[in-house]
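Batch manifest, entry 17 of 40.
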Amino acid sequence: MERARRRPLDVRNRIADSASSLFAHVAYPLANSLDYPGDPGLFGPDSATWAIIGDAAAFVGGIRALLIQAAHPEVVAGVADHSSYEDDTLGRLSRTSAYVAATAYGAMPEVDAALKRVRRAHRRVKGTSHRGRAYSASDGSGAAWVHNVLVDSFLTAFAVFGPGTLTRERGDLFAREQAALGKILGAPELPTTRDDLAMWIDSHPDIEASPGMEAAVSFLRNPPLPRPAAAPYRILYNAAVTTLPPRVASMLDVRSPPGALAAGRLLVAGLRWSLGSSPSWWLALQRIGADAPPRIHFRRPPPVEGIEEIFTPS
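Output type: C-alpha cells
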C-alpha cells in the first residue's frame, strides 16, 4: 500500500528532474534575490507576467519563439555567425531561461544585471546576412523582432496550453508590461495589445526564407538532447508548430502531425502537475512577502542554498 501511494510522487519527481535538468547549465540568476526584501522588480504580484511566464505552457512558448525568430534573415544570421547553439544547446537554452526568469521575477538589481549581460553579449554580434544587409544585435529593429516574438509566443502558448481562459484584458496587460521591458532594451516598435502584437509579427515586411532559417529549423526539429528529454521535446515542438501563423509556418516549411495539439496539451498538463508553477515565481513572492494566488501550486524550490528550510510544496 505504501509503495502504491509513493508511485505518483516518484513519477512526478522523475518528470520534474528531467525537465529541470535542461535549464541547469548556468548559474541561477536569482540566487541572492532574498537580499532585496520588498522589491517587486519590473512587474509584481498582480502582473500578468508572473502568471503567464510562470506556467508550464512557457515550454511551448520558448520553442515557438525560436522558430518564428528564425524567419528574420538578419536575426538568424546573427545567431548562426555568433552563437554556439549547435555545440552548446543546453547552455544556450539555460542562458535564455535565466534571462527570462531574471527580468520577469528578479528584484531590480537582478533585472539590471540580466540586461547588462545581454547588452554585453550583443556588442560583438555584427555582420552581414545572405541578402547583403548589415545586422547588429544592438540594432533596435532586430531587438524588436526578438522581443516581440518572444512576448507573442508566451501569450499564444498560454492561451492554447494554459490552465484556463486567457481574457483579452489579461493578454493586453501582458503585452503592455512586456512593452515596458522592450523599451528598456531599446526596441523601437512595441505593440501594446495581443491583437496588434500578432498582426505586427504576421505582417512584418523583413521576414523571408534564408539559409540560416533552414539550418535553425532543422536543428530545432531534432536537437541533440539527452535521451529522457528527446521524446517530450518532440511533443512540445510539434505543439508549438500548431500555433504558428500560417504565413510563418509556410515560410519555415513546417507542419505538425495529426494529434499534435492534443498531445501537447496532455504533456503540458503533465509538466504542470509534476513541476508546479515556476520556482522563481515562488521566490519573488517570498521576497515581497506576498501569498500565492488561488489554485497556484509550487512543487519544487528554486536552486538557492538553504531555501529548503522555508520551502513547503503546495
